[in-house]
Amino acid sequence: MSAEGKKGMFDWYFKSNLLIRILIGLILGGVVGLIAGESILWVNPLGSLFVNSLKMIVMPVILSSLIVGAASINPAELGRVGIKIILFYLVTSAFAVAMGLLMGNIFKPGAGLALGSAAEAAGRVLKQPKFIDTLIAIIPKNPFGALASGAVLPTIFFAIIFGIGISYLKASSDDRLKKSGDTLFMFFDASAEVMYMIVRWVLQFAPIGVFALIAVVFAKQGTKVIGALGTVTIAAFLGYVLHVIIIYGGLLLINKLSVAKFFKGGKGPMITAFVTRSSSGTLPVTMADV
Fold first, then answer.
1. Element holding 62 (H helix, E strand)
2. Residues with Cβ < 8 Å from 202, sequence gap 6 or more?
3. b (16+ CB within 10 A) / e for 137-154
4. 153/137 Cα distance (integer angstroms)
């Protein structure tokens, strides 16, 4: 048999549909957690490993992907493209927030759950930050500190500015500056590709991590978590479906784009977002499907 024809021991796992594996892990985790009880708590480290892995990839993916994306745009088109991106982001985000608030008011997920003691809730004073303070905080005092602490918005700001700088270097008429820009672009492009590969590795571990997380929750909380979890799940899924149909579908129809073609091409990023619960984790998949 040729090397191409050989099958690995775990081909049945790695070559099967990721979403189906995630759903199996989810269901098995709930069943095993209810049956085994606290004797299954030994799997808790596996869930922690999965969560930590997701956190590990977020900042490097954001930094490398956004730098490459900003550096790939022609400086002459940066203003026009940037304004369109900001407007699109603000509009879709506003609709997403409105949809979330609507689902929250209808289903009231979490109602009746004890999320903390009354004394703690009464003693905790939450102050809403001023809008101007929020804007100022987006610009990092130390971009390396923002990257290390996991501050997403300051990292995004720095990555975009840095990428724009590389874009101008690449377009420079000075050979030295142009070479420097090309070198930096290749470095971050290679870094992004490495991160995309790591993201795919982490996703392969997702079914095991989800199994462990759900098993521990059901082992500790028992059947009482089913009602609250079911309400949250229904509210979330209904919100997702309505957002996809109304917002995505509406924008596609307005721009006279094929709805079927869009969702076929966007299946990978959507499944990745659903599995990882991270928009940052979808960046490599989205860029690969564009």
1. helix 44-71
2. 50, 53, 54, 56, 57, 276, 281
3. eeebeebeebbeeebeeb
4. 8
Sign of CA dihedral 186, 188, 190, 196: negative
The DSSP secondary structure of 245-289, one letter per residue, reads: IIIIHHHHHHTT--HHHHHHHTHHHHHHHHHH--TGGGHHHHHHH
Q: Which of 51, 23, 26, 53 is nearest to 215 (CA)?
A: 26
- One-letter amino acid at 55 equals K
Q: Where are the beta strands (DSSP E) in 98-229?
A: none
Q: Which two tokens stand for residue 30?
A: 């709930």
Asked if residues 30 and 214 have their Cβ atoms less than 8 Å apart, the reply is yes
Considering only CA atoms, which of 69, 29, 78, 21 is closest in space to residue 212? Answer: 29
Give the other-Cβ count within 10 Å of 272's Cβ.
Answer: 24
Tokens describing residue 75? 């400086």
pLDDT tens column, 16-66? 777 788 888 888 988 898 888 888 889 989 989 988 988 888 889 889 988
Structure tokens at 230: 């079911």
Q: Global pTM?
A: 0.72
